[in-house]
Amino acid sequence: MNLYERIPNNVNLSEDKKLQRALEKWLPNYLDWWNEMGPDGFQQKDVYLRTAISVEPDGWANFDFVKMPDYRWGIFLKPAEPDAKIGFGDNYGQPVYQEVPGEFRNALRRIIVTQGDTEPASVEQQRELGKTCPSLYDLRNLFQVNVEEGRHLWAMVYLLQRYFGRDGRDEADALLERRSGNPDKPRILEAFNQPCDDWLNFFCFTMFTDRDGKYQLSALAESGFEPLARTCQFMLTEEAHHMFVGDTGVNRTVKRTAQLMNQGDVRELGGIPLDIIQRYINFWFSYSLDLFGGEISSNSADFFAAGLKGRYKEQEQYDDHFAADQVFNMKVVEDNQLKDSEVPLRNALNEVLRTEYVKDCEKGLARWNKSLADEGRSERLFLPNSRFHRHVGEYAGQNFDLEGNLISQEEFERRKGEWLPSVEDREYVRSLMHAVTEPGKIANWIAPPATGIKGKPFEFEYVRL
Ligand SMILES: [Fe+2]
Ligand SMILES: [Fe+2]
After folding, report:
1. Mean per-residue pLDDT, 297-306
2. Is 49 helix (H, G, I), strand (E, B) or coil?
3. pLDDT at 1 over 70
4. Distance 411 CA to ligand 2 centre (A)
5. What whole-number distance in Å separates Cα of residue 239 and Cα of residue 245?
6. What's the gap in Å between 360 CA and the centre of ligand 1?
7. Spatial contact of 46 and 464, defined as CB atoms under 8 Å apart
8. CA 191 / ligand 2 centre spacing (Å)
9. Nearest to 272 by CA among 286, 260, 284, 285
10. Is the pLDDT at 249 greater than 70, yes or no?
11. Residue 281 and residue 275: Cα distance in Å, rounded?
12. Which of 190, 193, 38, 194 is nearest to 129 (CA)?
């Protein structure tokens, strides 16, 4: 096998014998993992997929019919900028790191492993969904997301194998050994152990959880560790489509629900009631907020000081890249009450990033509410307060209502059926999920998309079954 011809890349793989050896060992394990944990039942089907074959504007999005195991998972970094400088923190203005700075080796490895772990996890979470696709268009989008998450795993494995020696190779192996939702060897982050077994879950996941990815990758895309920055910059180009799938998927569901509300009882008509959609939003939004980490975090301060992880659009949005003397105001829980607290800005950077993320999510909600309005409905969807249903950080272990008021455990237990998907909700949604695979046809619970993929009509046969 000629490895470097098989793996499209711009990391000089043909010259790098050490990396070749590491990848030669890892590649068969990756393919075993893909065949065992990738989309179940569709591995031998031709799918109209986008493949990145170079980083040039005409090369990163090549559309053709491909069988998923033959997808060319490549290793791409955005081309280097000459004389790049660290853009923030204590070493602001110094040349970027081309190798891992020794004192941050463990922290950086942890960041990369944690990011890398989410990529195969989401493929595992979504592996059964193909069997209940609402249309061939949606089926294709699911598989596009899946193969690109696979490629993102490659991107992180490249960094581990190229820059972290022996322990990097061990971590790369472990990324293929953990399994989403497995009690003995779970994935690292909890959102990635939650079941994603119906399409409303999938759309909420790609809307809210992939969007966390966008913010994490954006913060790392300006990292002073240049190989990481350039890797993340390229991943972001692909990630945009995943969020599009989620955003428009929820939107089309909301639109169809609104149409059915105008006709009568949504359940009787086979749609998803708006209150169930709201509970799914509450669930995935709150789990996705946890992914940003604690509101007050010395790690975030250390990463920023080191120039490893900045803020969202650090160069574009901020003038002061030291952020050394500023403070950030947030609410904390003290003596069973919410109180205002001033936190040194560098310690509040997880919360700063989370705030940017929430703003972005609000835009999605506005689009969905516009669909309700367009169908003549006065009901509206909303995001819960960021304190609601948190398992990580300042608000974990406390109970809050949707508005963010501190409440008792008893009240939370009594009302959680209003706020979070119940077993019955999930069963009901699952009962609607039947595969629709005739070109041009769509399930009853969701509206068709406004346009197809790459100029093709919705009726196009995106997957040849
Ligand atoms: Fe990804
Ligand atoms: Fe993604």
Report:
1. 94
2. strand
3. no
4. 36
5. 10
6. 18
7. yes
8. 13
9. 260
10. yes
11. 10
12. 38
Q: Return the structure tokens found at 317.
A: 């949005």
Query: E-strand spans in 241-336?
Result: 327-334
pTM for the whole thing? Answer: 0.96
Distance from the alpha carbon of residue 31 to the mean position of ligand 1, in angstroms: 18
- C-alpha span between 211 and 208 (Å, rounded): 5
* Ligand closest in space to the Cα of 206: 2
Ligand in nearest proximity to the CA of 240 = 2
How many angstroms does the Cα of residue 289 sit away from the middle of ligand 1?
Answer: 17
Among the residue ranges 37-51, 54-68, 115-129, the one predicted with the least confidence is: 54-68
Cα 322 to ligand 1 centre (Å): 29
CA angle 220/108/284 to nearest 5° reads: 55
- Residue range 255-275: average pLDDT? 98
N-term to C-term CA, the chain: 30
Residues in the chain: 465
Question: What is the band of 376 on the pLDDT scale with cuts at 50, 70, 90?
Answer: very high
From the CA of 217, the nearest ligand is 1
Contact between 45 and 463 (Cβ < 8 Å): yes
A 10 A CB-CB count for 434 gives 12
Report CA(252)–ligand 1 centroid distance (Å): 23
Instruction: Compute the average pLDDT of residues 359-379.
Output: 98
* Cβ atoms of 428 and 277 closer than 8 Å: no
Question: Distance, CA 460 to ligand 1 centroid (Å)?
Answer: 26
- Residue 175 corresponds to which tokens in the numbers above? 């990324």
Residues 259 and 187: their CA atoms lie apart, in Å, by: 39
CA atoms of 300 and 85, how far apart (whole Å) = 20
